[in-house]
């Protein structure tokens, strides 16, 4: 099966940052095989009319908790500690394994509809997220979240060994679209000996880790008291960063921490909407990038940031950091697009994606540019970052397969998913709930 997109405008994000007008894109198998004018049409090709559309690499959401769609709107206008202790970690005590499937399936619908092709997920009962990803046709990097505080404090009472078995079951599954890593929650929740066991297990499995790091000054102060080290230095000393790592947030980091993150090749996931909504302060994206750290963009879970819309993350990244620096020329639009595509693909282990060029994986999207907010179409990259709407996303292709065609989801039964997810979300918060563990900073 092949796909030929004709007469489109392509934001390639290649080394020269080329935007090509009136080009065809030929996809054969899982790969972009040609990009050029008037490409010959293979007999079996599905033709997509690319006129009035812009093609670009799809988004890689580098940190989320997809099934937290079930808790969207459930914990509003609260400080971070009360958000966790009184709402999120309580509701999750009433969560059942099958809920995670429906929450993740809802997330896949939302992500595809806003141009996301892959996501790094950190949650519970991850076999059910893997099932949703396999059915949706997306790519994902999946981590089963663990606290290491005793089985009674783990969602579902699941042990580290069981999450290791999950990695063995699913790493490389769905024709390589699913990658798995280990998912300790954070250095502030997980005891050091547990984190050391995770590092050893990740090395034995030859996989990475994904965790939350340095979200507040309070966490740093507590880490210095408990371990004599910042959270970043503590994790480095425990060997976590010797594995490929996605470190979500890194808001409270000093220059020495940044040097460690750069030296160890840690991928920091930057999720500005959550920082703004939970009033956590803002991770310094300019300092991280200047310090040589690889940074990718993410939404975080919809319980904190309320959606899974990477277009909004692009926009907030540009708006916030330009203003913070008082430098409108900072973070040019294609740099922001690279953080949301190539950098995320790299962080998730799908390197090669994030560029429209022959030989690259066919993970791309088309946006319809006919709505009034696109006119006049001087600069389509600026249009994607600062004016597009999720409803402009008309087509999504992952690994050469169409998952969204003319706004229609081809792999997911959206009506049933919406119904099941809402029914289960209401059941969860109506069921007897109990506090499972306590956040102390
Ligand atoms: Zn998170």
Write a structural description.
- The model has no long low-confidence stretch (mean pLDDT 97).
- The chain is globular.
- Strands 1, 2, 3, 4, 5, 14, 15, 16 and 17 form a 9-stranded mixed sheet that branches.
- It has helices spanning 80-91, 97-113, 126-136, 160-170, 192-205, 217-227, 231-237, 255-263, 272-277, 285-290, 310-325, 333-340, 342-348, 380-386, 414-430, and strands at 2-11, 19-28, 31-36, 45-49, 53-57, 59-64, 116-123, 139-146, 178-184, 209-213, 245-249, 267-270, 294-297, 364-368, 393-398, 401-405, 408-409.
- The chain starts with a strand and ends in an 11-residue tail after the last helix.
- It is built from 15 helices and 17 strands.
- It folds into 2 domains: 2-57 and 355-409, Urease, subunit C, domain 1, CATH 2.30.40.10; 59-348, Metal-dependent hydrolases (TIM Barrel).
- It is of the alpha/beta class and 441 residues long.
- Bound molecules: zinc ion.
- Zinc ion binds at residues 63, 65, 212, 248, 300-301.
